[in-house]
Specification:
The protein is an alpha+beta fold. It is about 45% helix and about 25% strand.
């Protein structure tokens, strides 16, 4: 599936999920850096981002960190195939989260059934993203990784000037690079005239076709 096709399907799915989840979910605010759930915690709740952004992370025994994904308003997250969370989830900034106990969905009648279907759709999308992430980590060059990341963030934002809720260390831990390498690749993409940064977390794609050619799919 192309990146554009994936983003379109994701947007349609999120619109349905927002409608269903909003009718049964419990709303809770989280401050920047606050943990939403912990690694190895029981995984019976399903979450949806209402505002802000969320990252999922896994801490290895030697202290290294791998970021699993980033979630934006409308995204469901915290969905596991086993009884525990393999990653923890943290608020990237102040955010608002809806959550519902998955085992209680049967008590919500048709709304619960619709949400269960939305959860299965989210599981399928998570598998697609995991496969894309695996390809990114294993086969792409550092420049291709950073370019892919910026293109995806631009497509998910749908704004001309994209605001990144994550810092460069988060980007590095997601892409399997060092923060120094991420900074070098961002500088290279700017020098090549493909992107333009206005501050550390605001950018726009100047030449999308050239960026797309750079990204190996």
């Amino acid at each position: 599936m192309s990146l554009q096709g994936f983003v379109t399907d994701r947007s349609m799915f999120r619109a349905v999920a927002v409608e269903v989840f909003g009718s049964v979910g419990v709303r809770m605010p989280f401050a920047a850096g606050e943990e939403i759930y912990a690694q190895e915690e029981a995984a019976d709740l399903v979450y949806q981002v209402i505002s802000g952004a969320v990252r999922t992370t896994r801490l290895m025994s030697d202290g290294r960190r791998q970021i699993g994904d980033f979630y934006y308003p409308g995204d469901l997250f915290g969905i596991e195939t086993g009884p525990k969370h393999r990653f923890s989830a943290e608020a990237l900034g102040d955010c608002e989260i809806l959550f519902v106990k998955r085992s209680a969905l049967k008590h919500y009648g048709e709304e619960g059934a619709r949400l269960e279907r939305a959860v299965w759709q989210a599981t399928a999308k998570a598998l697609e993203r995991t496969q894309e992430h695996l390809m990114l980590l294993g086969r792409k060059t550092a420049c291709e990784k950073v370019a892919s990341f910026l293109l995806e963030m631009a497509d998910r934002s749908k704004a001309e000037v994209v605001t990144l809720p994550m810092g460069r260390q988060d980007m590095a831990d997601y892409l399997g690079l060092t923060i120094e390498t991420v900074s070098r690749m961002l500088t290279q993409l700017q020098a090549d005239g493909l992107v333009e940064f206005t501050g550390c977390r605001h950018f726009r794609i100047k030449h999308r076709a050239a960026m797309a050619r750079l990204v190996v799919t």
